[in-house]
Amino acid sequence: MTKGSTTGDPGREPASGEAGLKAGLKNRHLSMIAIGGVIGAGLFVGSASGIAAAGPGILISYALVGAMVVFVMRMLGEMAAANPTSGSFSAYADRALGRWAGFTIGWLYWFFWVVVLAVEATAGAKILAGWVPAVPQWAWALIVMVVLTATNLASVSSYGEFEFWFAGIKVVAIGAFVVIGLLAVFGVLPGAHNDTAGFSNLTSHGGFLPNGPGAILTGVLMVVFSFMGSEIVTLAAGESEDPQRAVTKATNSVIWRIGVFYLGSILVVVSLLPWNSAEIAKKGSYVAALDSIGIPHAGQIMNVIVLTAVLSCLNSGLYTASRMAFSLGQRGDAPKVFAKVNSKNGVPQAAILGSVVFGFLSVVFNYVWPDTVFKFLLNSSGAIALFVWLVICVTQLKMRGIILREMPEKLVVRMWAFPYLTYATIGMILFVLGYMVVDGGDNRDQVLLSTLVGAIVLVLGIVLGRRHEGRAAVEK
Fold first, then answer.
1. Which of 54, 113, 151, 367 would be 215's cystine partner, CB 3.0–4.6 Å?
2. CA 420 to chain centroid
């Protein structure tokens, strides 16, 4: 297949304004989407298993994955600042690597997020059913999906407003947790009664790496997927008031965001409690930490925060999937109806509904066939996050030259130590994928099944691309 672009812009997709999407996202929306995008529900509910596997050494696991994400975001920021578009890395891969690459990674990314919709809808429904048991869990999942679908259909500003408050609650909550926790660690929190809190917990229970250095890699596999979502801001930038400024700001701030929210909060947890405390495994890391310093109703507080994180992920997942479908439609790689924008509110209505239909089906699969069909969907989308990051790295290697040649004035964000750090990041991602295969179990299944699905999509893309080229040749 040929490279898709026939213009000076990176990709075959017209700019968002030309495509009919409204620039309804304000700078405050983009800022909070960027900040909140790195705080997924996985941080709150999945960190306990990582701590159990690696002990305090889980901090190194988070730092390694965090560094990888910082580098990937820097590369993506370089391309997005030069050409903000709803297709983001899919459109850039289309231009730099070929139409097959944009098609494949675009559809895989869409698939990833529509499966996530089912996971998050079910997680939110469990919490809500616990509060209001008279309403069955499946009904809560349906209600949540319907409400957030309506939000996305209303206007992009509605999505932005909801996400602003959802992300705001997450940011305030985890910021307060870090501050309160550090005060308790230093022994200056009024009313705290945890006499065992302190940085000594990092080394006094079997050492900093109680399960050996190999546990760091195990921890990497357990935390890597909680970082997915940091790239959403580059898709949303195309519908903002000042896309270049938003992307530049988000890219430059990703280091402190990961440092505070991930490393800071996990440091607080393993300092307040011994890593092998039964309370962490029983209650979850954040609830156990809050309970240890006498914060009342810690469990319910965290339920509210986790529900907010789940709704935020659902809201952004539907937005992200629909915009990727819209971009694919714009480039002729999806049904043309996906590229149509509602003239009244400026949203891609068909792309939203198409995405949510698959999301609804996934929810049904989760309730009817959780151990067969839905498990296959989960495993076959499990490694896609790493595939996306890998494609971003490879794309940036070629896009740097294209930008310098065609629009050097737009190279306002630059990847550090190019191309050496880009190659190093590619090596890190390939190492993680390889270690997942060697590790076995669900990790191996995720890589193999995700690769299988990716291969199927790739072949489909090549076949459809050749047909498209054949029709174009006939028309000429």
1. 54
2. 25
